[in-house]
Design a protein that fits this description.
Homeodomain-like_sf, WH-like_DNA-bd_sf
């Protein structure tokens, strides 16, 4: 993954473009792509900051925010299928998730998989 452009170079690019030079000429002179110069100018225009944005990190699953709904649903009806749980989130919260994502979320939240999954697993054993 490429590293962010250093602050001195960012300042130089912004100053030259604001002085009237074209983005393409400035990009060639500093050895960066035209897209990099355009993104930098857009960032300065929108945020007023030359600092690079956050790179990487972990994005939590949207399902995790609805853990209470899942816990309550499985407590009321322990035999709900993964598809039914996905439908529940879609109808109550407008959140569409795949069966795989739902299964992973149940595992991550420490909830047992629905009864139908346990029966299938027992048959394989």
């Amino acid at each position: 993954m490429p590293s962010p452009v250093c602050i001195e170079l960012r300042v130089s690019i912004i100053n030259e473009v604001q002085a009237g030079a074209t983005r393409r000429a400035v990009a060639e002179r500093h050895g960066v792509s035209v897209a990099t110069a355009q993104r930098l100018l857009k960032r300065v225009t929108e945020t007023g900051s030359l600092e690079p944005g956050k790179i990487g990190g972990y994005k939590r699953s949207a399902i995790d925010t609805h853990a209470a709904t899942l816990r309550a649903a499985l407590q009321d009806r322990p035999d709900m299928t993964l598809a039914a749980l996905c439908g529940l989130l879609r109808s109550r919260h407008g959140l569409t998730v795949s069966l795989t994502a739902m299964h992973a979320a149940l595992h991550r939240l420490g909830l047992r998989p629905p009864k139908a999954c346990r029966r299938r697993r027992a048959r394989r054993a």
